[in-house]
Amino acid sequence: MTESRDALLAALVWQGELGADEAIGDVFVDRTVPAPKPESQAAPALALVADGAHPADDCADLDALRAAIEAHEHPLKHGARTCVFADGNPAARVMIVGEAPGRNEDIEGKPFVGMGGQLLDRMLAAIGLSRHDEDAARAVYITNIVPWRPAQNRTPSTEESAIFLPYVRRHIELINPALIVTMGNTPTKALLDTTTGIMKMRGGWTDIMVGEVARPCLPMLHPAYLLRQPMDKHKAWTDLLALKAKIEELQ
Ligand code: URA
Questions:
Q1: 167-223 pLDDT, tens digit each
Q2: How far, in Å, is the centroid of ligand 1 from the Cα of 47?
Q3: Domain that holds residue 105
Q4: What's the pTM value of the predicted model, to 2 decimals?
Q5: Number of domains in the chain
Q6: Disulfide check for 20: which of 15, 142, 167, 202 has CB 3.0–4.6 Å away?
Q7: Segments of the chain assigned E as strands
């Protein structure tokens, strides 16, 4: 009895050290055992991949896309509270793609609401942009590559990014932005299909084909990185000015 109590206490301390410091559901789920997949979900997904089709392709609007993402069975979904879909003005000409929700985003259900998000809002405000602006010319729309919070805020793997990429590409088609900004390594590598790191990619425009349209994409340093490395904020400022200049070219 004492032995099992000690083992349970040690497991609890270990989880705390890993950052698993809160309950996210009412029911205990043993995640050391692979979750059984209902056949009705597993089989069609394989068939769709084999056909070359993807559930995202059928989404005619944002509600359908959100529903398709929420229905996508993925282990990350079971460790998160909320599907973090997007925030901002869907009519915006600038679409920002981040990495994945963190703890605050998971709680609020919106991307970039933690400290990094607050810095992002201030950075955007410095060039006259806001996620809350009703005027499409001054608005931004924000999403992430991965819609579910990875445990302990780890960086999503390349495989996880690849799984959700078709949804992001459809998201871009539906929003139809004139410009895309990728924040940090994960969305830059996924959307620009590159292995080159953000330090080399940042600040340079690259056209990406989404649907039939080539859209200029600007990789920038992630706000969470800038919070850790404020000495690099001048690089973000240079990139913001490049974004502002490109927006002015649109007018
Ligand atoms: N970092 C991101 O990339 N996205 C969020 O939504 C929050 C933090």
A1: 999 999 999 999 999 999 999 999 999 999 999 999 999 999 998 999 999 999 999
A2: 32
A3: 45-249
A4: 0.82
A5: 1
A6: 15
A7: 87-88, 94-98, 140-144, 179-183, 206-210, 213-220
